[in-house]
Amino acid sequence: MRVAIAGAGAVGRSIAHELIDGGHQVMLIERQSQQFEPETVEQADWVLGDACEVSTLEESGVDQCDVVIAATGDDKVNVVVALLAKTEFAVRRVVARVNNPANEWLFTEAWGVDVAVSTPRMLAALVEEAVSVGDMVRLMTFRQGQANLVELTLPAETPLAGRPVSEIALPRDAALVTILRGERVIVPQPEDPLEPGDELLFVANAEVEGDVRAALGY
Questions:
Q1: How far apart are CA 69 and CA 216, in angstroms?
Q2: What pLDDT, on the 0 to 100 scale, is given for residue 67?
Q3: Residues 184-189: contacts with CB within 8 Å, 24+ apart?
């Protein structure tokens, strides 16, 4: 994919390195000359300019990108970049960084954001996930709350032990996407048996999370 990243600070550069290592083409857009350091990510294309300006995005060829990531440390900038990328350049996927959780309500589809990434929320979720067994933990929100990535770890005394995945009567708007078992990542098949300690990852509509818990006996 071709990915444009607005903001070439520590976060933007780290994302760029990860994407380049994954074989993607990356363009970094940075408006502050003191952070314009092409030598730090030599494999990326660099643009010195303001990503909040339509002219900058047009000249840099954002319309040819598959993904735009608004990764600056300013939530107002990230929202504006997301809106321009989606409405002016029809970028298929827009990801925006949320710096202040109080601003999370702004990062919606109405402002061009497909996926909002809130670091504080993710860290809190990971802490919960580390200590919660038998409880459902929301790890990430997609499409502004219409669907969530949720995790539930089966306790030692789970009644599901030994039962196949096909016996879990999930609601319509939920899917079991992965089972984490020790160091293994299992793409679940209907006949795969469940084991105590399994971490089950679901993508589910927020309204049916309770039904997912009920299907697992909680």
A1: 36
A2: 96
A3: 189/165
Among the listed residues 12, 76, 127, the one whose alpha carbon sits nearest the alpha carbon of residue 4: 12
Cα–Cα distance for residue pair 57/87, rounded to 1 Å = 12
Question: Both tokens of residue 101?
Answer: 């959780």
Residue 209 has what DSSP assignment? H
Decide: helix, strand or coil at residue 26: strand
pLDDT in tens, 73-96: 999 999 999 999 999 999 999 999
Residues with Cβ within 8 Å of residue 202, at least 6 apart in sequence: 149, 150, 151, 152, 170, 174, 175, 176, 177, 212
Question: Of 93, 65, 213, 67, nearest to 148 (Cα)?
Answer: 213
**What gap in Å lies between CA 56 and CA 16, rounded to an integer?**
19
The residue with tokens 């954001």 is 113
- Kindly report the average pLDDT of the chain as a whole number: 88
| For residue 176, pLDDT beyond 70 | yes
Task: Kindly report, residue by residue over 20-65, the tens digit of the pLDDT.
Answer: 998 999 999 999 999 999 999 999 999 999 999 999 999 999 999 9
| Rounded Cα distance, 205 and 200, in Å | 16
DSSP summary character for residue 194: B
